[in-house]
Amino acid sequence: MRTSRLLALPVGVVLVAGLAACGGGSTTAESTPTTETSASATPTPTPTPTVDGLTVENAFARLSAAESVATSYDVTLSMTGPETMEMTGSADLADGKQNVAMVLPDPDLGSIEVRFVDGVLYLGMGELTGGKFLQLDPNDASNPLAAGFAGFADSIGGSELAGMEQAFTSVTPVGEPEQLDGVEVQAYEIVVDTAKISPEAGQELLAEGLAQLPPTITYTYWVDAQDVPRKVVYELMGTTTTMLMRNVGAGAPVVAPTPDQITTEMPF
């Protein structure tokens, strides 16, 4: 699992663009973005439960298969160390949708909320947007704020394991099965040889601000009986990233703001 590239907004807020590519993992808080809808999410079918544990030979295929069916979930991501960040969110990728929502605490604005629904971007930036959501076209290169989200849609729904087919060098179970949010999970330590990942995957990692890749990256995955990673932890350059995925198959609905909640007036 790698975190997708970070997007720097003009207001100085750092957001994770690849929330919806997280089909394998996420972090630790109970809160999820506030969304308004009268419908409830429909649980997504899950793979047939597996009996044997993950190994170097089967881990990539099994995790990839599980990732492909995790199309609705709530997620929390935290980063601690030289780089710090907290983010909660939800994803609805069922039936080809690319709808995601994120909330990031901000010391000046209280919080930043991002929703991407049906190809339209909505930014809620507190007083800067008058308590409303700024509506943007992420393909509008003439708008500097929208341009910061160029390629956003391309990152949604992509596999977090892409480019790592040959890179797993060891897969080791850690401890006994345990309970996580009422679901039984087994922890696995997965070591990735960065020399064996694809150039594209390597560039994504470098785009996160690394000067160079370490020889190996060690991830700890907590996977359920269907091989869905419910928690992932890894460390890069002194920063520990923890991701927790909850409500798999029944995440909070992601919907566009109502018309009275939308503005098109640029805040700066």
Spatial arrangement of strands, main beta sheet: 9-10-11-12-13-3-4-5-6-7-8-14
Q: Nearest-angstrom radius of gyration?
A: 18 Å
| Cα distance spanning the termini | 36 Å
Following the backbone from N to C, one meets helices and strands in this order, namely: EEHEEEEEEHHEEHEEEE
What structural class should be given to the helix and strand makeup?
mainly beta
CATH architecture: Clam
**Counted beta strands:** 14
Helix share bin? 10-25%
CATH fold annotation: outer membrane lipoprotein receptor (LolB), chain A
- Shape summary: globular
Give the CATH class.
Mainly Beta
Task: Flag low-confidence runs.
Answer: 1-51
**How many structural domains?**
1
Averaged pLDDT: 76
Count of runs of 4 or more consecutive helical residues: 4
Main beta sheet: strand number and arrangement? 12 strands, mixed
Fraction in beta strands: 35-45%
List the topology elements.
Layout: E1 6-8, E2 14-16, H1 59-69, E3 72-80, E4 85-92, E5 99-106, E6 110-117, E7 120-124, E8 133-136, H2 144-147, H3 152-155, E9 168-180, E10 183-193, H4 199-206, E11 216-223, E12 229-236, E13 239-246, E14 262-263
